[in-house]
Amino acid sequence: MSKQKIVLIGNGMAGVRCIEEMLKIQPNHFEITIFGSEPHPNYNRILLSKVLQGDTTIDDITLNDWNWYEENGIQLYTGETVTHIDTAKQVVYSDKDREVRYDQLILATGSLPFILPIPGVDKEGVTGFRDIQDCEKMMEYSNKYKKAAVIGGGLLGLEAARGLLDLGMEVDVIHLSDYLMDRQLDSAASKLLQKELEGQGMNFLLGKNTQEVIGNTHVEGLRFSDGEEIKADLVVMAVGIKPHIQLAIDSEIPVNRGIIVNDYMETNIPNVYAVGECAEHRGVVYGLVAPLYEQGKVLAKRICGIEGDPYEGTVLSTQLKVSGVDVFSAGEIFESEQTKTIKSFNDWEGTYKNILIQDGKIIGAVLFGDTKEGNKLLSFINKRADVTEYLEAEKGEEAGASLVATMPNEEIICGCNGVTKGDIVQAIESQGLTSVEEVKGCTSASRSCGGCKSLVADLLECTLGDAFSKSNQKEPICSCTTLSRDDVIAEIREKNLTHTREVMSVLGWTTSEGCSKCRPALNYYLGMVNPLEYKDERESRYVNERLHANIQKDGTFSVVPRMYGGVTNPDQLRKIADVADKYNVPLLKVTGGQRIDMFGVKKEDLPKVWADLDMPSGYAYGKTLRTVKTCVGESFCRFGTQDSMSLGIALEKKLERVGTPHKFKMAVSACPRNCAESGIKDLGVVGVDGAWEIYVGGNGGTHLRAADLLCKVKTSDEVIEITGAYFQYYRETAVYLERTSVWVERMGLDSIRAVIEDKQNRIELNQRLDEALSVLQDPWKEALNSDRILKDLYQSVKVPAGVK
Amino acid sequence: MEKTLQRIKVATVSELPKDLGKTVRVGSHEIALFHLVNGKIRAIENRCPHKGGVLAEGMVSGEHVFCPMHDWKINVCDGEVQKPDRGCVNTFKVEIENEDVYIVLDK
Ligand code: SRM
Ligand SMILES: Cc1cc2nc3c(=O)[nH]c(=O)nc-3n(C[C@H](O)[C@H](O)[C@H](O)COP(=O)(O)OP(=O)(O)OC[C@H]3O[C@@H](n4cnc5c(N)ncnc54)[C@H](O)[C@@H]3O)c2cc1C
Ligand code: SF4
Ligand code: FES
């Protein structure tokens, strides 16, 4: 039987993807010819933004290299455009006078950038942003010119603008609406985005209608309908795209906005199909790859003669690929009288979330700042899930894994690269993959925008079960290295490394000097591994920990002395009052940690304030034990069953000063009424009749978490022993800057309990902790006793005006 | 326009610990002086272009300082803020003569 002759017009993402699907179904069944106007093999158009932003190169974005075409016996004509189709004879004609007969013809001609119909757009220096050539043109212009104007404040325009900034140009973004990305974002998210991008250096001209491109042969600027003008050497048109359908029109294939297709991507001409951005399905023309890949799948089955589900349209989701900005939007985004919302706005962290609900179903969502939830929300929207299901999932601990477990195998996990759940699960199983990075390498999932990483991790977890622990996931310490915390600590131990610089050079850091992320982390790890010999590097510490005081926004500092267990006396209070008077301390405040904070102290005054106070440092600035809050307990309270104050004070005195991966807070309450809030502490103790309960992993901060019961013991001594062991185990196994609330979840409470329950472990952990504690002294005293420290760190230079 | 330059002694090299910043106030100027690990000494304006963070207290890595307020990374040689943030701080010329460190100011 002779092979079926397939011709594909358009060597782009949608068409080639459809061919790949066909080859998967029936490998040796077709004789395939592909025409492409561009001189390149099929590449990932999405990543042009990242090429422009300098994150990757043109060479790295090829999807199917020349070999792929050869290996699959595909006849490829690049740099060649099909100019006519004779749909009666079933022949296509190219601009190189080639004629090719087909049995089945796929049109995948994509789209063209929409160029505003205004005077001057034909001048040199006006470009769209669609292909490699446009990208190269912008890079070339950035070498010669300074000022760029991008018309269009949508996804494409903003990605282009960010790229041009990275190429060193000054960038004005002109947008017709008052809101950026107004088709994907609601006004609140849009304003947050604008603020963020302005911070990155973009300049916006909103509500502006461009009327003319001015200049001689070359662009010199733009004129707007209000008469205002700006200068520009390069103008990027990113106002939209229009389906590339001229060829279809000329060949009398029915079109509307795009080439009209049914649910099987068939046009109404026999044996002629269309996929991708050139196709119009149920009145919609799509401009993102996820739907185009779905279309390609449906069409591949059709051509192979396999019964398949029809294509019924796709809910769109978008993600902006600009570093430092996380934006996600999917489905409906505009509120109406029929919709309700779940909204949250965190000004401090710059995060925003708006979920739209209609008739109890989630129909759309906008996320800004933190987009981790994006893919999950998309899948709820696609399932038309009940909002209660979402709220339940949000509560449940295993939400992620159980959500992916219920997805069908065909569901697309990575929209950018069209990778399905089935593809990923199969790769994990057949190739023994165990990490997100490996899955990325084998399947391309999460290779483009990275938005689906958390779903990939959930899939690993649900496929491998216990064999996958999130703790195996190698997260590099920072961008100076690919090594994870565990790798680095293993190397420090094995090679006896003793200095941050040594670690960085022996382990091949990409920058010889490190950064503000890795240096404090290395300093901590080195000290943890070798507490007796390691000399703490003050240069690698954040200012608060270097100066032993908290910096304020105006450059002054705060001073918090210890008040063990929140217990004080008239003597201490008098001293604090006197010092506050003497140094004009602007604010005295009782903190949330049961002690007194003196705010607004000048750096030069810090040593004098400490000397006069003559109290130990409260380490309110440190990654170390902060406070041990206590309630009054049995000595005064009618319900108290235990001496909470004494235990709190004993714990604070024992554990103070030694460094931990993140701050560590404790509390001791003398009954379950829990007035010291032991349930939200890194370690909290609650007295019950004749015993103490020990709770761990609580947090009262950004991510509120109730503590878990670790164990129940009889005596205060046992509490101290267990607390010491637990504290040291956290010191030895947590990632720098990982609070215990996160650590407990990563390690698993049971596995921590198993370690602490073992008597021998407890003894050894406490020995190592005591060793680390043995060499520490109060940092304020240490500074006061060293002229060198006082000079190096606390003195500034003052030269009166007029001195030569 | 005529410019007068003023050369002011602010420290000796040995007074400046390496990889740390020092705040220098000259009249109304507030300057952050850094002794880099390669031995060079550099001076920039002591205010971060973001929200005015005190740069002398930042962590110094090679030729860059990380602002203690929100971690912007700033080159202490040319004053340029590093990607993805943008901006620039003034730099001041530093001269060293027999262990003495001078800052040169436009008047
Ligand atoms: C002074 C105080 C507020 C007060 O007026 O009461 C305070 C002040 C600061 N807190 Fe706090 N926190 C204070 C109690 C708390 C508490 C309540 C407590 O300890 O019982 C919490 C929630 C409990 C918890 O941590 O689980 C708390 C959760 C945070 C967080 C969020 C931590 C988290 O893991 O989510 C941060 C940010 C961080 O550490 O990264 C933070 C960071 C800060 C910093 C250091 C901000 C910074 O990095 O510059 C603030 C310094 C202000 C300044 O200019 O000096 N502060 N902070 C409290 C000092 C307690 C003390 O005596 O040491
Ligand atoms: C900068 C940029 C960033 C993007 N970012 C994203 C993103 O983050 N997420 C996302 O989902 N989508 C993104 N997109 C959109 C995505 O790239 C497109 O949806 C996708 O490439 C469309 O695929 P297609 O095959 O329909 O068209 P194309 O990939 O454009 O392929 C069509 C090809 O056909 C060729 N052709 C046309 N007519 C003829 C002819 N007569 N003869 C021969 N060849 C012809 C064209 O030259 C072209 O090479 C982005 C696009 C750009 C430009
Ligand atoms: S003191 Fe704590 S809660 Fe208050 S603004 Fe500062 S970090 Fe936020
Ligand atoms: S003030 Fe310097 S980073 Fe914000």
Fold topology:
The complex is a heterodimer of chains A (804) and B (107).
Chain A: E1 4-9, H1 13-25, E2 30-36, H2 48-52, H3 66-71, E3 75-78, E4 82-86, E5 91-94, E6 99-101, E7 104-107, E8 111-113, E9 126-127, H4 132-144, E10 147-151, H5 155-166, E11 170-175, H6 187-199, E12 203-206, E13 210-215, E14 219-224, E15 229-231, E16 234-237, E17 241-243, H7 246-250, E18 259-261, E19 272-274, E20 279-281, H8 289-303, E21 317-319, E22 327-331, E23 339-346, E24 351-358, E25 361-368, H9 374-383, H10 387-395, H11 399-406, E26 412-414, E27 419-420, H12 421-431, H13 436-443, H14 453-464, H15 485-495, H16 500-506, H17 518-529, H18 543-547, E28 550-551, E29 557-559, H19 570-582, E30 587-590, E31 596-601, H20 606-613, E32 625-630, H21 644-655, E33 664-669, E34 683-688, E35 691-696, E36 708-713, H22 716-733, H23 740-747, H24 749-757, H25 759-774, H26 779-784, H27 787-794, E37 797-799
Parallel strand pairs in A: 1-2, 1-7, 2-3, 7-19, 9-16, 10-11, 10-16, 11-12, 18-20, 32-33, 33-34
Antiparallel strand pairs in A: 4-5, 5-6, 8-17, 13-14, 14-15, 21-22, 22-25, 23-24, 24-25, 26-27, 28-29, 29-31, 30-31, 34-35, 35-36
Chain B: E1 5-12, E2 20-26, E3 29-35, E4 41-45, E5 59-61, E6 64-66, E7 73-75, E8 91-97, E9 100-106
Antiparallel strand pairs in B: 1-9, 2-3, 3-4, 4-8, 5-6, 6-7, 8-9
The complex binds siroheme (SRM), flavin-adenine dinucleotide, iron/sulfur cluster and FE2/S2 (inorganic) cluster.
The site of siroheme has 21 residues of chain A, from strand 32.
